[in-house]
Amino acid sequence: MLHSIRPAWPLMFALTLVSFPMTIVAYELDADLRKSLSKSLKRELVEETPRAQRLSVRLSFSTKGAFRDYERIAKRAGYPPYSDCSIATFVEITNWQIIQGKDATATEIAALVKRCEATDLTVLGPKPVSQKIGDREILRGMWQRNLAFVGKGLGDNALQEFVTRTAIDRFFNLYGNPAKWQITDNGFEPIPEAATASTVTPEESSSTATTTASKLPSTTPETSTASSSTVSTTSVNGIDRIALRTVTGYGLSGVYVTNKTYLMLKDGTIHRSFSDNPYTIDINASRRESPDDWGRWRKRGSALQVTWPGDEPDLWENWFTTRPAVDGQTISGRFQSADPFGGGRVANFNTVAFDANGRFSWASLKGGDTGAWLPAYSDTRRAGRYKLDRYSIRLTYNDGTIEHYAFCFYPKDFEHFVIGANHFTPLD
User: Fold this and answer.
1) pTM of the predicted model, to two decimals?
2) In whole angstroms, how far apart are CA 102 and each of 72, 97, 211, 371?
3) Which of 33, 102, 124, 288 is most buried, by the most CB atoms less than 10 A from its CB?
4) Residue 205: exposed, middle, or buried by beta-carbon count in 10 A (0-12, 13-18, 19+)?
5) Which residues of 247-263 are buried (b: 16+ CB within 10 A; e: fewer)?
6) Distance between alpha carbon 169 and the CA centroid of its chain, in Å?
7) H-run or E-run covering 376
8) C-alpha triplet 405, 258, 295: angle, nearest 5°
9) If residue 116 lies in a helix (H) or strand (E), which one and from where to where?
10) Helix (H, G, I), strand (E, B) or coil at 15
11) What are phi and psi of 184, to 5 degrees?
12) pLDDT single digits (tens) 328-369
């Protein structure tokens, strides 16, 4: 499923108040420059995000909210948000903590700031740090933290591996192989035994670092190394159905209930954690990169027996068959998806509007008639045309961007449906 990209922050940054001398702010905020930078960087981040989370980032990652969260983190820790060394330390700590899987102490953070203040340079370059550099690093860092939080909270190994690799690559740019560095009360220092070792590439470091990076694959979750002759995709005849099942989970504020979808193939295999167009899934690459997401299914009377790798067979008594769209079918109205991760306290809501003429808009639209929605439907980045094709939906944005996702209707009506892995219900 797609998850909120603005969680609370009990992890990933030490918030202990420390005594810290105020430094000169690196730049005065230029609102127009920030707005322009935010739009372009968000597009970059969406493209970099693993496909299973891409729609969620597009809809849920608020750049304004990311800056507010960053400012709150810095101020609560006693640091001026936009000073050169606050931003530089934020970048260092973000990537180090993701790699190590644990928080740095307030003393360690203070040591990095102090070391930065003693020179005319930061890890991001000469002082002063420009707003273009600073804002980009802040947004990228908050994006990393959000994905790391979601991946850890949901036990999503593929997402955790992706985020860890981004952190390793960034740390290499700042210092070098993270396996050769340690953080102390004096800041980052080389580990003596490794200080004279030969240079190691980011990929090689993943096999030597004492972190989850040691288990990272050589490619990112969406990259296939199979040749064109070995690629195997699903087909119309290969899909048996998309199943729907209600499951119970645990979030930040207790128990929550959510619906999950599963792609069932006629050869008896079942796939979870999917959101792309099911007719174009590269089965070989997917099984190679995420083997734990592929299992076996078979009917046992009205129940479904499902077996995942390494687990005992699980008998699903309560499951349902979703419905594909029929030729020429459209949707009309406003719909909302509530992300239950963490419980109601941090639930995120995404709104989409469709009309019977094939238009859509990711926006909170007001008014009950089509005329009132026209301005939103003309948005170049968040609106465009849609087309339903059985278990898939194609979104063609007004700026020419095209996205394909899995799609299905719930069993009993056409007002409850799934896009990617997000479940939508009527808003009006």
Assistant:
1) 0.51
2) 20, 5, 10, 52
3) 124
4) buried
5) eebebeeeebebbbbbb
6) 18
7) helix 370-377
8) 65
9) helix 106-117
10) coil
11) -130, -175
12) 899 998 888 765 433 333 334 478 889 888 999 886 444 443
